[in-house]
Design brief:
Elements: H1 6-21, H2 27-34, H3 38-44, H4 48-58, H5 62-72, H6 77-85
Length: 95
């Protein structure tokens, strides 16, 4: 289990946001599915919960996770770790 500080998760979230913005075909899908605007992207870059939503979106498709990991040099599992670290990402245990 990773024990990196939360600001490392925020950094990874920012990298995911930058990666997403660089994909002309994927960015409109994110904006449409979240209702976010381009202005929201700028203000959301400072919001850990928004960065968690970006990671949630990236994790919707294994290929996106792999592409992001390859582009940034992070192991793919760091996306899940960062998401769990940011607000709203705690795993739920129903037992």
């Amino acid at each position: 289990m990773r024990t990196d500080p939360p600001n490392s998760a925020e950094t990874l979230g920012l990298e995911a946001l930058a990666w997403l913005v660089g994909h002309d075909e994927l960015l409109p899908v994110f904006l449409g599915s979240t209702g976010a605007s381009e202005d929201d992207l700028r203000s959301g870059a400072r919001d850990p919960a928004f960065l968690g939503a970006v990671l949630d979106f990236v994790m919707m498709d294994d290929d996106w996770v792999q592409d992001f990991a390859k582009a940034t040099g992070h192991p793919p599992e760091t996306v899940m770790w960062a998401r769990q670290t940011l607000p709203g990402g705690a795993q739920v245990n129903w037992t």
